[in-house]
Amino acid sequence: MEAGNVSQISEFLLLGLSDDPELQPLIFGLFLSMYLITVFGNLLIILAVSSDSHLHTPMYFFLANLSFLDICFISTTVPKMLVNIQTQNKVITYAGCVTQIYFFILFAVSDFFMLSVMAYDRFVAICHPLHYMVHMNPRLCGLLVLASWIMCILNSLLHSLMMLRLSFCTHFHIPHFFCELNQMIQLACSDTFLNNVVMYFAAVLLGGGPFAGILYSYSKIVSTILGISSSLGKYKAFSTCASHLTVVSLFYCTMLGVYLSSAAPQISHAGAVASVMYTVVTPMLNPFIYSLRNTDMKTALKALLVM
Questions:
Q1: Residue 125's closest CA among 60, 59, 67, 56?
Q2: Tell me: the pLDDT tens digits for 111-139?
Q3: Are 108 and 54 in contact (CB under 8 A)?
Q4: pTM, to two decimals
Q5: Mean of pLDDT over the chain
Q6: Strand, helix or coil at 58?
Q7: CB atoms within 10 A of CB 267
Q8: Secondary structure of 76-93 in the HEC alphabet?
Q9: CA dihedral sign of residues 177, 179, 181, 185
Q10: What's phi and psi for 174, nearest 5 deg?
Q11: Mean pLDDT across 73-89
């Protein structure tokens, strides 16, 4: 492969999770299973919400959007990884790498915003129940989702365009199973100061901002729940938030752990393995988390499966 600037780059090598040939069939089978479970499980959530009129509420509207995002999120990385293992070819084109970065950032940040919007929905439902349907009307719900998409598309476009200004001279091996923005910036041989500034600023603004919104919403929710006199009332109020809190904890904690550990280059391969938690495991678990403890969702899923 010829060294030089961006215009001369044609491909990179994705090193994946392991170099051991004997582990490749196991990794392929495991990730194929998780991918199919994720797509099928989240698709069932979307179909159940669409088909059951009892679930045509803001909470389930946002849940269906989250399920759609999870399908897109895992589809950004895992299919390419499976193809590489099956063909025993670790190559990804430069255009494919930039495209993967664009969609990965788009759906990851969209998850942040959707989880924040869902927290706001629970805040209104618990803290202002009498005005819930007035505040969370279809127009506002649609505007919240649309605004999230617009901001995430612009953010992804900015990062992708910033990638195009980088030069890659000698290091074309990516110690990951997908093209990850931080890894790509570290591989560049040109000045990456501006890329790092944009990346960290966007992480604080578009990652920290929604998280701050989630924390604020739940501080108000906890305060309201503590003010409820009956134990049964407290349990019912908290049970509507339990699934969302579980998903938020999984997604944010695993992603934060990966990106804090990525500062140490000697454990970059371990970081790739750890990133499986938020890129694959969390989207796979979301349908189970939201359906197993939700009576309305279980009823809708049963009706859907016996049709």
A1: 59
A2: 999 999 999 999 999 999 989 989 999 99
A3: no
A4: 0.91
A5: 87
A6: helix
A7: 14
A8: CCHHHHHHHHHHCCCEEE
A9: positive
A10: -100, 115
A11: 94
The stretches of 77-208 forming alpha helices (DSSP H) are 78-87, 94-127, 132-135, 138-163, 181-187, 193-202
Amino acid letter, residue 47? L
Q: What whole-number distance in Å separates Cα of residue 121 and Cα of residue 106?
A: 22
Among 272, 291, 289, 284, smallest CA distance to 30 is for 284
Which two structure tokens, joined as six digits, stand for 2? 């010829």
Q: How many CB atoms lie within 10 A of CB 41?
A: 21
- Residue type present at position 260: L
**Dihedral of alpha carbons 232, 300, 50, 114, sign:** positive
For the beta carbon of residue 30, count every other beta carbon within 10 angstroms: 14
Residues 87, 270: Cα–Cα separation, whole Å: 24
Q: Cα–Cα distance between 275 and 258 in angstroms, integer?
A: 6
91-93 and 11-14 beta bridge pairing: antiparallel
Q: Cα(117)–Cα(78) distance, rounded to whole angstroms? A: 27
Domains and CATH numbers, the chain: 6-305 (1.20.1070.10)
